[in-house]
Design a protein that fits this description.
Family: Belongs to the binding-protein-dependent transport system permease family.
Helix content: over 70%
Keywords: Cell membrane, Membrane, Transmembrane, Transmembrane helix, Transport
InterPro entries: BPD_transp_1_N, MetI-like, MetI-like_sf
CATH architecture of the largest domain: Orthogonal Bundle
CATH topology of the largest domain: MetI-like fold
Shape: globular
Main location: membrane
Subcellular location: Cell membrane
Length: about 325
Amino acid sequence: MLRYALRQLISLGLSLLVASLLIFLVVELVPGDPATFMLGTGAQPDTIAALRQQLGLDLPLPVRYLHWLGGILQGDLGHSFTYKTPISQIMLDRMQVSLPLALMSLMLAILVAFPIGIHAAANRGKASDTAVMGVTQIGISLPNFWFAMLLVLVFAARLRWFPAGGFPGWSHPAAALKSLLLPAIALALPQAAILARVLRSALIETLDQDYIRTARAKGLTQGQALRRHALRNAMIPVLTIMGMQFSFLLAGAIIIENVFFLPGIGRLIFQAITQRDLIVVQSAVLVLVAAVILITFLVDLAYALVDPRLRRR
């Protein structure tokens, strides 16, 4: 198990290095001069030159990359020109919104998907299975931003049960959770539909295995065989989807954060792009990529726990 974890850690480090280089090149090669954009077209050339020197834009591209990478290795993500604040502090503040939102969304998706997927697999070919598959197809097809606006219209504007947007901060935990509930539901709906379908397919494939027939022959009911044997062995594709979903919920909630005016990481990246605050874009995207790679690493470890054969590789 230790050797397996070490190999995955080395792969994680190499992936991060390659990702940092790609992120830096993509952002740096965007057309236009950030200093000119920040100061406006009417700024004096000497003022623009001073700002370029302050931002390090006058240095060669490889030198800028090494400076940026060296700062990251020391825990320094840089300093935002727009917010006049260290980027690490901005990221911590925004993560207090994005991380709980992603966790709430994934938990809601799991709570909905597992009972539905298990029920559909246990009743495959029946009317309830067909109904579940139809409902999940609708859930996958609905755009989450449209569903989010529908939730705002019904539960915020008309019923006034939840706030329409904004985030009060964690000094008021109940109000903070209440403000995150509607966006979490909007994000969880399509993820629950996808997870339910994957779980159903994995369980149906597992239920056809010989050891399940043996368990049934020993007197277990279909439900008992499903819960005791099939569910664990069907978890590898489900864990893959859950890891991908959490990565998406953490890094890809930019539309929902803008619909609900949530000060999360996705909205930070959107604002930094419009303001041409490139150092914020680079560092924030790298943090998100690192989070996705870390989640993938944890999912790989979960594979080894679920399937002991992987530990011997």
